[in-house]
Amino acid sequence: MKTICLHLQKGGVGKTSISGSLACELTKRGKTILIDVDPQGNSSSWFLTESPKHELAEVLQGKIELDQAIVKTGELDLIPTFGLDGELKLYGESKLADEPFIFCDLVEELEKLGYDFVVLDLSPGIGRLEKSAILSADEVITPLTPDTFSLDGLEIFAHELKKLLKSFRKSVRHNKLIINAYDARIKQHQEILEQAKKTAGYDKFIIPVDPAFRKAQSAHLPIQDLKGSEMAKNETLTAIKKLAEVI
């Protein structure tokens, strides 16, 4: 089983869009579950049309069994988080300090349930909640948008990740970058892409500006399921497919 999370401590880079799309693509290759580790619950809002009965925080606190929280959404399974009145943020701030490996335990239980892939959608922070999730992963993939702040954020995140892994004596691969919302017509995007390409040690994947992400989320559908004029760009679908293949 492989556990993947997407992270950069900067909002608006497309972590949820790519996490959800990648998870849906991975369902073609094995049993996959997406875990909404963002207190805002954006992944849950995307894939669910009705409010779920249970959320991730209840599992982490031992209030319910793991299988009670799993929601079926087509081929993709989901462990949701309540965006409103959810307990995940409070749990991360209060109780998580006493159990930093709780996500490692969760991933082990998911492997027993026969999952091939686990995808964790994280919030932009780098607090206890995000660190605990990262420690459970085999690989962290960083999405960034073609702007200077994202490149600065990549350097800061790589530094923080190195410290985290050293402190807990863990090994998590971090060698893939996604340049998201790229528009080749914009000179700054061209310049930032060239800088990103020079960043050593990373495989790069380019996803263009694509309104299909917004449309898919509004329709509560995977981006791969959009049809006709709503369909995602070929470059988008190809990049997501290649990313799933190398994972």
Q: Please, could you describe this protein's structure?
A:
The chain is an alpha/beta fold and 247 residues long. It has one domain (2-246): P-loop containing nucleotide triphosphate hydrolases (Rossmann fold, 3-Layer(aba) Sandwich), CATH 3.40.50. The chain has helices spanning 15-26, 42-47, 56-60, 66-69, 88-94, 102-112, 128-135, 148-168, 187-197, 212-219, 234-246; strands at 2-6, 32-37, 71-73, 76-79, 117-122, 139-144, 173-182, 203-208. Strands 3-4-2-5-1-6-7-8 form an eight-stranded mixed β-sheet, sandwiched between helices. Helix 1 (15-26) packs across helix 11 (234-246). The chain is globular, with a radius of gyration of 17 Å. It starts with a strand and ends with a helix.
What layout of secondary structure does this protein have?
Layout (H helix, E strand, L loop, with lengths): L1 E5 L8 H12 L5 E6 L4 H6 L8 H5 L5 H4 L1 E3 L2 E4 L8 H7 L7 H11 L4 E6 L5 H8 L3 E6 L3 H21 L4 E10 L4 H11 L5 E6 L3 H8 L14 H13 L1
Parallel strand pairs: 1-5, 1-6, 2-4, 2-5, 6-7, 7-8
Antiparallel strand pairs: 3-4
